[in-house]
Amino acid sequence: MAFPLPKLLPRIEELLQEVQWLDGLILITDSDRTCFVSFSQVDPLLRRLRQRPKGPEVAEKLCMSLLDCHGKGGAKPVLVFQGDGSFWLGMIGPSGNNPHRHHAIAHLHRCLALEG
């Protein structure tokens, strides 16, 4: 699975603030570029995903995530999708002062440091 690198978190959070009341998801691809995909643009994305390795699995999980958060604002699904078919799908909401999130980010930094 491809996890969002800590360097991307500020960009994800910035974009999340801009689109927090819109329905959709945040997409990150091989280029590490974050973009917002509105609910009306999800079908073409799902069609493209289903044509890739592991795409049907990703598309199904993404649909479930979108249904879970539809109309709730704030938190959005974030999909990191790599060309080789590896992916990470999670929910990210506005951070504020969430100690659990800061702990999770610190843990991810430690894990990445051990890899290097």
How would you describe what is shown here?
By secondary structure, the chain is of the alpha+beta class. The protein has helices spanning 9-19, 42-50, 55-69, 99-115; strands at residues 24-28, 34-38, 76-81, 87-92. A four-stranded mixed sheet has the order 2-1-3-4, with helices on both faces. Strand 3 (76-81) and strand 4 form a beta hairpin. Helix 2 (42-50) runs antiparallel to helix 3 (55-69). The radius of gyration is 14 Å and the shape is globular. The model has no long low-confidence stretch (mean pLDDT 79).
Q: How many alpha or pi helices?
A: 4
* Global mean pLDDT: 79
Give the SSE order as H and E letters: HEEHHEEH
Question: What helical percentage do the residues reach?
Answer: 40-55%
Number of strands: 4
Oligomeric organization of the protein chains? single chain
Which parts are unreliable, with pLDDT below 50 for 5 consecutive residues or more?
A: none
User: Per the principal axes of the C-alpha atoms, what is the gross shape?
Assistant: globular
Most strands sheet: 4 strands, mixed
Output the strand order for the largest sheet. Answer: 2-1-3-4
Overall structural class, as computed from helix and strand content, comes to alpha+beta
Strand fraction equals 15-25%
Compute the CA-based radius of gyration.
14 Å
Distance between the termini: 17 Å
